[in-house]
Design a protein that fits this description.
about 375 residues; Rossmann fold; Hypothetical Protein Yjia, Chain: A,domain 2; single chain
């Protein structure tokens, strides 16, 4: 038996998707002794409390509660300490991690990659990153409800859900009983346009067999990262000029790059009449009325958001900028005399659209 013999399964999914219900089902199966790490953003770990009060055979479970933070950021170090501690218990056969609803799975998986690289004799390995998907919500908010300006928070939610869907090697489509057969088929098709490689299973109220989750290929960070439709577009289309890349599902994608800034009002107007043929868009942009800040643009289905991020390096005070360039001269490789490192770089993914028409709409905003 290999040294890395205890699988770790990370369960992600937005608030209300059914992660805790899934864990309740798994714990009731009592097939093997598992450890459970439950992460809740609140000061009181509600999910762990529910699991403990649900009549499970607690003697078979090593439960670790982590709260008042998120294991993908503020609790990351504490989280890995608990993983190391649990790995020393030779009776544990699997470790399940129920991440908080707002966790970014790529960050959690990255922590494991670093841990495995630095810990030669650890018994644990990352087996699965599971995304629990509320198909009813996807149907209503991703496929059919157009987000209004005052509903920006909902757009942020959908973008986070898309991130969780894109970065996984198992999708559990939960609450399928809430949709008609045709509606579920529409959701499945839409999800496959975003995530084409991950295993996909359907269920009602988180009723999934433990063995199904533990079967299959082990998690591969680089491979799963490449599953993302956005990453595929960047990998395959970065140097495409005239023809968009086409995959086996008929989804096309291309990368738009332009140093000059967007006009804010014109770009906002574009979002109000955004092409329905575009399934997913993501990237960094900047506006002519703000030479300081990087903006993150994300679109998923009928939702689109713009979020102000950090500052462009070229917007730093001259003394700091000169110091950075001296220490990291490569930073100026793509430097523009006028715009510095400022650049719009956007990935567009869709079906049955005309690339030149999308480009025309974008250049009208420049």
């Amino acid at each position: 038996m290999s040294k890395r013999e205890v699988p770790i399964i990370v369960i992600t999914g937005y608030l209300g998707s059914g992660k805790t219900t899934l864990m309740q089902r798994i714990l009731h199966q009592e097939k093997r002794k598992i450890a459970l790490i439950v992460n809740d953003m609140g000061k009181i770990n509600i999910d762990a409390s529910i699991l403990q009060k649900n009549g499970n055979q607690v003697r078979q479970i090593e439960m670790v509660e982590m709260q008042n933070g998120c294991i993908c950021c503020t609790l990351r170090d504490e989280f890995m300490v608990e993983v190391e501690r649990l790995s020393k218990d030779t009776s544990i056969e699997a470790i399940f991690v129920e991440a908080s609803g707002i966790s970014e799975p790529s960050s959690i998986a990255g922590a494991f990659v670093n841990y495995e690289a630095m810990t030669e004799n650890s018994r644990v390995y990352l087996k699965k990153v599971v995304s629990v998907v509320d198909v009813d919500r996807i149907y209503r908010e991703f496929l059919h409800d157009l987000t209004k300006e005052e509903d920006k928070e909902d757009g942020d939610v959908i973008n986070l859900i898309m991130d969780q869907i894109e970065f996984c090697n198992l999708m559990i489509l939960n609450k399928t009983d809430l949709l008609a057969k045709e509606q579920l088929a529409e959701v499945t098709k839409g999800l496959r346009e975003i995530q084409q490689e991950a295993q996909m299973i359907t269920c009602v109220q988180g009723d999934v067999d433990l063995d199904v989750i533990l079967e299959g290929e082990d998690f591969d960070f680089e491979q799963v990262e490449a599953f993302s439709s956005v990453q595929k577009a960047l990998n395959n289309c970065e140097h495409e000029d005239e023809k968009a890349c086409v995959d086996e599902y008929g989804i096309t994608s291309f990368v738009f790059e332009e140093k000059r800034p967007f006009k804010r009002e014109a770009f906002q107007n574009l979002l109000e009449n955004y092409p329905e043929t575009l399934i997913r868009s993501k990237g960094y942009i900047w506006f002519a009325d703000d030479w300081k800040h990087i903006q993150l643009f994300e679109q998923a289905g009928r939702n689109a958001t713009i979020t102000e991020l950090s500052e462009w390096v070229s917007a730093w005070p001259k003394k700091e900028l000169d110091s950075v360039i001296k220490d990291f001269p490569d930073i100026t490789d793509d430097w523009d005399e006028t715009y510095g490192d400022r650049c719009n770089q956007l990935v567009f993914i869709g079906k049955n659209y005309q690339k030149k028409e999308i480009q025309k709409l974008l250049y009208q905003c420049i």
